[in-house]
C-alpha cells in the first residue's frame, strides 16, 4: 500500500502517493510520472478550478508559467483558472532539484501526460452523463459541450477520487499543430506581483510573532574559535537569544536592525585563530594540480583515420566565480512550541534533498519536518539558499514556537557561498594533411561542480553543519556520469572526431568551497574546446565557421551554427568577431554565438558591444520565456568573462561586496540579437543554461583576433588581459 | 525605546517606534509592511533598496530614520497597485522585464526619478541613470526597453 498524505488546502484535499511503491514490471512512464505515478500527484480538479502540482520551483526562469501553459493546453482550460503548487515536501512530488535545465523535460512531460489523461477521463464521465460519445464532445475553458448544445463542466463532474489513480500515459497529448497556448508567450504569472511590491519572496515573509536572526560566521573556512564573550551581546536591546554551538554563532532579536547590531557585536566579541589554508592565488592552478584527484575517462573513441601530420596542444584555465545573487539568501523556520516539529520556508532549488540533509543535522524524524519553497532572488545554481535554511532552523530551535527569519548579510553571501570551481583544461589534437582533426584529447582538472545537499548518503552539504560542536563532514565528491557530467560537462565534443579521449581529473580536496553554478563545467570546457577549434582552424587556414561545419554531422547543430553566422553577417561592423557553439550537455538546447569585442590595450579592458545568437530548444513552450533565458544567460556570461573573479589570499576570501566583486553594469551590457529555430514536433530541450558557454567561447575567439594571439586564461579582467598582452 | 518618529510614506504619516539610527529600509519592510524595497547589500552599492525621498532616489539602507525629516517617502507601492498600475509598472509587465525580480523595485523608482526630471531621456541616458543598479539575471536590455516603452506610451 502506498503511503498517503492528506492535507486540506484551500478546501480541497490533496491525496497522493509521496513514496510510490514501484510494482515490479510497472510500465515505464514519461518524465517525472515515472517516480510520482498517480494523476492526483500532479493535478486536482474541483469546484474552484484546477490545481497543478509540481516538484519544480520558480527561480526567476519562468518555470511555473511554462508548466501552467502545458497543463492549460492539454486540459483546454484558461491559464488564469490554474493554480500552481510547487516544491513542498508535504504537497508535491519529489522531483529532486530544479536544475540542469530539466524542468520541461521532467515536470513538463509528467504534467502534459497527466493532463491529457485527466481530460480523457473527464470526457468519458461527461459522455455518460450527456449520453453522447466522448469523441463528439468539445471543451473550451473547462466547459464540455455536446453536439446538441447541452453542456457540463469539469468542475461539475469531477469527484474527489476521479484522478485518484495511477497514470497510464496511454492518452497521447495534443499534436503540436493543435496547440493554442503552448508556443505562445503567456505573460509570466509572477511578474505583476514583482513590479508592485507584493510579498512574493521568502525575504518578504512576516509571520505573527516573527523574530529576526543573523549569523556571525568565522573569518575564514578553517578559523578556530578561541573565545567569545556573549553576555554583553545578550544584553543588547531586543536580543532574545544568542546561539553558540561549536564555531556556529548566531543571534535572534525582536527587530531586524537589532539583530544586525547584535551580529556586529558578536563578531567583535569573538577571538579566532586563522590558519593559512587557501591556495596561493598566484599559483592557483599548480596548487590544484597537486591535490588528490580521482580520474575517470568519460569518453574514448578509436577509429581508422588519415594520419596526423601536425600536432597541437594548449592549456586553458578559469578561476572562481560567485553566484552573487542580488538578494542575499534567506529562510524562515518555526519549531512548534514543544520543539517536536519544524516548518522551514526556503528558496532552495530542492526542498526534498534539503529536507534530507536537515533531518540528519537536526536529528528529526521524517514526519517532523516540512520544507516549503518560497521564491527568492535569482540563485543561478547552488548558492546560500540551503545553508541559510539550516541557519534559520538552528536559531529557531532556541526560540520554539516563534518563527525566525534569517537573511545573510552581503559579506556572508560573498564569502560563504559555494563558488563555481577553478578549472584547467589541457587539450591536444592532430590535424590530417587535409586539415581535418583526426585525434582529439581533452583533460579537465577541477573540483566537483555539484556539492549540493543529499549528494550521497554520507555527509551533509550544509555550511553550519560543518561548524557545530558535533560537526558533520561534507559528502565525498563522486564523478557524475555523462552526458550530464559535472566538471567534465560538455568536455565530450559534439563534433565528429575519429579518435578522442576525454579525461576527468576530479579534485577531491576542496580548499575553496565550490558547487553548482549555472552550466557547471560546460562554461570552462566549451571555452577551451571552442577556442582550440579556432586555433586549429587558423593553423589549417580554414574559416572557423566552415571548420566547425567540416567536423559536425548533427543537422540541428549545423543549422544553428549557420543561422548565427547569417544573423551576425546582417549587421556590419569593424570590431573583431568570434564564434562559439555548443549543445548544452550534448542533450539539451543548441546555441551558437557571434561576439564582437573592443580591446583597450592600454588598460586591458575588454568590452563586448554586440552578440548575435541562434538557438534550437526543440519545441518552444514560451518564445518570450526562452529569449529571456537565452539573453539573460549571455549577459551573465559576459559579466563572468570580462568582470568577475573571487579574490582571496592564503588566509581568507577577500571578495565581500560589490566593490570587491564587480559585475557587469547597464552601460556595459551588450546589444543582443537572437534568432530561435522552433521545432514544434521535437521535444522541448532545456535552455536555461544553454547560452553561457557558447557566449564565452565567442568572446574568447573575438579577443584572440583583437589581441593578435589567444588568451587562454579566464577571466578577461583588465589586469589579467594586460598581463597576457605584455 | 526612543520617542516615536513621524514619517510620511506614500501620502500617509506614521509614528514609528524605532531608534533614530535605524535604516529606513527596515522601517518600510518591517514596520509598514512595504516590501518593494529590498535588502541587497546594506552598503548603497546595488540599488535594490532604492526609494524616493522628496522625489529623489535614495538608498534606503543608507538613510537613517532620524535623518529623513520632512521629506516624503515614496515606495513602489506608492506609485501604483496591481489594480491601478503606474506607467512604468505597466511597461515592465508588457516587456516582461524581470527574471527573479528582486532588483525590480529599485529599477522602477530610479527610472521614475529620471522620467520626472527628463521628458525623453535617450537610451544611453537611461543606461547611465541605472548604472549603479545591479541586475544579476541579465535582464538589463528588457529593463531599458520597459523604460522606453513607458516614455512612449505615457
What share of residues are in beta strands of chain B?
Answer: 5-15%
Shape of chain A: globular
* Strand arrangement, major sheet of chain A: 11-12-9-19-16-17-18
- Residue share in helix of chain A: 25-40%
| Overall strand count of chain B | 5
Write out the strand line-up for the largest beta sheet of chain B, numbering strands in chain order.
Answer: 4-3-5
The radius of gyration over CA of chain A amounts to 27 Å
Number of helices of chain A: 16
Average pLDDT across residues of chain A? 95
> Could you give a short account of the major beta sheet of chain A?
7 strands, mixed
Mean pLDDT of chain B: 97
Q: How far apart are the termini of chain B?
A: 46 Å
Cα Rg of chain B: 15 Å
Compact summary:
The complex is a heterodimer of chains A (726) and B (154). Chain A has 16 helices and 26 strands. With 726 residues, chain A is an alpha+beta fold.
Structure description:
The complex is a heterodimer of chains A (726) and B (154). Chain A is an alpha+beta fold and 726 residues long. Helix content of chain A is 26%, strand content 24%. Chain A has 16 helices and 26 strands. In chain A, helix 11 (522-540) crosses helix 15 (692-707) and helix 14 crosses helix 15 (692-707). The longest helix of chain A is centred in the N-terminal third of the chain and has 28 residues, at 103-130. In chain B, the strands form 2 sheets. Chain B has a 3-stranded antiparallel sheet with strand order 4-3-5. A two-stranded antiparallel sheet of chain B has the order 1-2. Chain B is built from 6 helices and 5 strands; from the N terminus they run E-E-H-E-E-E-H-H-H-H-H. The model of chain B has no long low-confidence stretch (mean pLDDT 97). Chain B has helices at residues 24-31, 76-79, 87-94, 104-117, 123-129, 140-153, and strands at 5-9, 12-16, 50-53, 56-59, 73-74. With 154 residues, chain B is an alpha+beta fold. Classes of the chains: A alpha+beta (726), B alpha+beta (154).
Amino acid at each position: 500500500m502506498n503511503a498517503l498524505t492528506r492535507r486540506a488546502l484551500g478546501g480541497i484535499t490533496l491525496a497522493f502517493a509521496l513514496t510510490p511503491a514501484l510494482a515490479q514490471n510497472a510500465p515505464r512512464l514519461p518524465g517525472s510520472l515515472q517516480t510520482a505515478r498517480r494523476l492526483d500527484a500532479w493535478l486536482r480538479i474541483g469546484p474552484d478550478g484546477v490545481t497543478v502540482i509540481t516538484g519544480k520551483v520558480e527561480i526567476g526562469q519562468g518555470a511555473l508559467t511554462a508548466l501552467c501553459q502545458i497543463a492549460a493546453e492539454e486540459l483546454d482550460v484558461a491559464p488564469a483558472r490554474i493554480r500552481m503548487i510547487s516544491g513542498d515536501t508535504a504537497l508535491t512530488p519529489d522531483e529532486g532539484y530544479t536544475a540542469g535545465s530539466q524542468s520541461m523535460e521532467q515536470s513538463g512531460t509528467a504534467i502534459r501526460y497527466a493532463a491529457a489523461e485527466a481530460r480523457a477521463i473527464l470526457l468519458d464521465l461527461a459522455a455518460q452523463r450527456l449520453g453522447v460519445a466522448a469523441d463528439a464532445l468539445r471543451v473550451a475553458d473547462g466547459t464540455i459541450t455536446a453536439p446538441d448544445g447541452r453542456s457540463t463542466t469539469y468542475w461539475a463532474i469531477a469527484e474527489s477520487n476521479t484522478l485518484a489513480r495511477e497514470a497510464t500515459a496511454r492518452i497521447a497529448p495534443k499534436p503540436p499543430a493543435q496547440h493554442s497556448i503552448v508556443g505562445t508567450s503567456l505573460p509570466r504569472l509572477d511578474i505583476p506581483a514583482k513590479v508592485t511590491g507584493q510579498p512574493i519572496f521568502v525575504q518578504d515573509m512576516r509571520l505573527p510573532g516573527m523574530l529576526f536572526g543573523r549569523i556571525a560566521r568565522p573569518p575564514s573556512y578553517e578559523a578556530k574559535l578561541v573565545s567569545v564573550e556573549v553576555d554583553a551581546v545578550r544584553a543588547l536591546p531586543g536580543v532574545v537569544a544568542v546561539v553558540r554551538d561549536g564555531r556556529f554563532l548566531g543571534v535572534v532579536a525582536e527587530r531586524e536592525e537589532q539583530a544586525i547590531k547584535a551580529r556586529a557585536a558578536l563578531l567583535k566579541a569573538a577571538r579566532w585563530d586563522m590558519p593559512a589554508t587557501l591556495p596561493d592565488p598566484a599559483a592557483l592552478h599548480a596548487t590544484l594540480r597537486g591535490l588528490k584527484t580521482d580520474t575517470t575517462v568519460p569518453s574514448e573513441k578509436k577509429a581508422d583515420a588519415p594520419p596526423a601530420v601536425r600536432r597541437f596542444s594548449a592549456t586553458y584555465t578559469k578561476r572562481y566565480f560567485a553566484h552573487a545573487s542580488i538578494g542575499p539568501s534567506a529562510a524562515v523556520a518555526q519549531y512548534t512550541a514543544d520543539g517536536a516539529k519544524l516548518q522551514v520556508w526556503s528558496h532552495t532549488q530542492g526542498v526534498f534533498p534539503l529536507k534530507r540533509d536537515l533531518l540528519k543535522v537536526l536529528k528529526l524524524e521524517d514526519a517532523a519536518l516540512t520544507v516549503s519553497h518560497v521564491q527568492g532572488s535569482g540563485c543561478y545554481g547552488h548558492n546560500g539558499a540551503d545553508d541559510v535554511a539550516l541557519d534559520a532552523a538552528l536559531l529557531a530551535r532556541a526560540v520554539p514556537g516563534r518563527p525566525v527569519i534569517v537573511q545573510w548579510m552581503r559579506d556572508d553571501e560573498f564569502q560563504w557561498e559555494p563558488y563555481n570551481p577553478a578549472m584547467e583544461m589541457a587539450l591536444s589534437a592532430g590535424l590530417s594533411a587535409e586539415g581535418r582533426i583526426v585525434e582529439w584529447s581533452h583533460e579537465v582538472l577541477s573540483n566537483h561542480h555539484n556539492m549540493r545537499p543529499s549528494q550521497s548518503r554520507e555527509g551533509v552539504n550544509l555550511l553550519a553543519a560543518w561548524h557545530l560542536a558535533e560537526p558533520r563532514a561534507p559528502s565525498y565528491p563522486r564523478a557524475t556520469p555523462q552526458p550530464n557530467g559535472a566538471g567534465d560537462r560538455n568536455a565530450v565534443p559534439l563534433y565528429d572526431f575519429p579518435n578522442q579521449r576525454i579525461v576527468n581529473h576530479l579534485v577531491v580536496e576542496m580548499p575553496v568551497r565550490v558547487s553548482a553554478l549555472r552550466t557547471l563545467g560546460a562554461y570552462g570546457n566549451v571555452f577551451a574546446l571552442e577556442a582550440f577549434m579556432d586555433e586549429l582552424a587558423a593553423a589549417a587556414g580554414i574559416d572557423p565557421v566552415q571548420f566547425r561545419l567540416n567536423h559536425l554531422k548533427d543537422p540541428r547543430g549545423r543549422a544553428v551554427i549557420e543561422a548565427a553566422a547569417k544573423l551576425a553577417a546582417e549587421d556590419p561592423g569593424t570590431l573583431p568577431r568570434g564564434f562559439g557553439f555548443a549543445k548544452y550537455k550534448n542533450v539539451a538546447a543548441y546555441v551558437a554565438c557571434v561576439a564582437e569585442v573592443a580591446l583597450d590595450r592600454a588598460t586591458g579592458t575588454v568590452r563586448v558591444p554586440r552578440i548575435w545568437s541562434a538557438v534550437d530548444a526543440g519545441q518552444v513552450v514560451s518564445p518570450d520565456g526562452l529569449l529571456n533565458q537565452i539573453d539573460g544567460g549571455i549577459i551573465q556570461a559576459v559579466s563572468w568573462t570580462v568582470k568577475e573573479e573571487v579574490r582571496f589570499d592564503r588566509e581568507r576570501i577577500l571578495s565581500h561586496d560589490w566593490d570587491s566583486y564587480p559585475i557587469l553594469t547597464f552601460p556595459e551590457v551588450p546589444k543582443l540579437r537572437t534568432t530561435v529555430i522552433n521545432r514544434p514536433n521535437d521535444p522541448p530541450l532545456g535552455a536555461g543554461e544553454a547560452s553561457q558557454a557558447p557566449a564565452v567561447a565567442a568572446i574568447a575567439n573575438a579577443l584572440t583576433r583583437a589581441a593578435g594571439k589567444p588568451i587562454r586564461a579566464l577571466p578577461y579582467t583588465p589586469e589579467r588581459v594586460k598581463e597576457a598582452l605584455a | 525605546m526612543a520617542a516615536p518618529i513621524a514619517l510620511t510614506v506614500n501620502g500617509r504619516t506614521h509614528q514609528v517606534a524605532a531608534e533614530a539610527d535605524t535604516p529606513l529600509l527596515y522601517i518600510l519592510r518591517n514596520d509598514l509592511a512595504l516590501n518593494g524595497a529590498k535588502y541587497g547589500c546594506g552598503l548603497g552599492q546595488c540599488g535594490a533598496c532604492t526609494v524616493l525621498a522628496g522625489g529623489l532616489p535614495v538608498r534606503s539602507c543608507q538613510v537613517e530614520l532620524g535623518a529623513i525629516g520632512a521629506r516624503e517617502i515614496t515606495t513602489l507601492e506608492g506609485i501604483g497597485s496591481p489594480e491601478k498600475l503606474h506607467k512604468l509598472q505597466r511597461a515592465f509587465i508588457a516587456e516582461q522585464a524581470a527574471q527573479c525580480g528582486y532588483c525590480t523595485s529599485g529599477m522602477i523608482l530610479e527610472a521614475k526619478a529620471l522620467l520626472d526630471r527628463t521628458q525623453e531621456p535617450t537610451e544611453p541616458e537611461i543606461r547611465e541613470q541605472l548604472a549603479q543598479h545591479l541586475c544579476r539575471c541579465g535582464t538589463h536590455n528588457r529593463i531599458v526597453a520597459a523604460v522606453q516603452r513607458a516614455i512612449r506610451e505615457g
